[in-house]
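Re: the request from the purification team.
They wanted to know what the chain is likely to look like in 3D before they choose a buffer screen. I agreed to run a prediction and write the result into the notebook, where they can find it.
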Amino acid sequence: MARLSAPVEPPLPQGEAKVRAVREMFDAIAPRYDLVNRVMTFRMDVGWRRATVRALGLSAGAVVVDVAAGTGDLCRELDASGLRPVGIDLSWGMLAHASTDAPLVQADALRMPFPDGAAAGLTCGFALRNLVDLEGFLVEAARVLRTGGRMGLLEVAAPANPVLRWGHGAYFGHVVPRIGGLLSDAAAYRYLPRSVAYLPPVPDLLQLVRDAGFAAVERRALSGGISQLITATRGRR
């Protein structure tokens, strides 16, 4: 009897092909993006965003640029904490479905439409792996932040514990695509777990942050290590 083989996924896109693929994918999944996030993370994503905002440690009224703002989850948390968020996203579809009072701009994270040192803080939630040039983004983030400004990068991760890592890998790689397929777009939620391959190893990622002009770079594992929060302070220019 012939054995059935799993479908072969296409190679992950690179360069401009990745930019187009990411924009089109998020345009497509925007209508039910928040619902899928809450279901597949059991609402843990809400707590992760709150932890990101708290970790900035900024005073009320501080301007914070939220990169890859999507439907406004982090903007809402920033606003609730008394901060002044400004969101940017490459996907017009995501911004069109946003529910936030913050100003929103369709823009490329590598070319943010803000002057040097314009912001006291910068956040980015679950988008590092979707950027076409991670190093370039970090340099651009340093440009937009004033000296002493704070950055919080929230991203997926793999637990250090081997048992938890296996369970998380099975869930993220097999269950999440099924949830996404039932509630939204199956192809998009097959891509998202695979996109973790774009992330460099943790030590390399932290070094990229330092090399871009940041100090006090710290990484915190969240929820047993299935998510990570990287915080840093903009050094002197």
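For the purification team: The longest strand covers residues 145-156.
Please add any questions underneath this entry.
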